[in-house]
Amino acid sequence: MSSSDVIYRRTVAGQSAWDSGAPLAAPLLRVLSLIEAEMHSHILRRLLRHHADSSVAEWITQLEKLGLVEAVPSHLEHDLDFTGSFELRK
What we know:
single chain, alpha+beta, 4 helices
């Protein structure tokens, strides 16, 4: 799955870690704080644009290995500009 076309979301463990103030490194806490429910990878990268892509990828990988975040394929139901739901009437 391409990391440029996924939806990241907190797992139950991730929500629990956030709620309990788990002792995570500052960059991991920052990423976890941004992924409240679901977030498209493009938006996450834009929010973290001041950091190298390789660093962001490493942080996400660490959160996934810890079971705090999961990545799911991006589909039409995650239509970021909502144009997929428009129907033209004749």
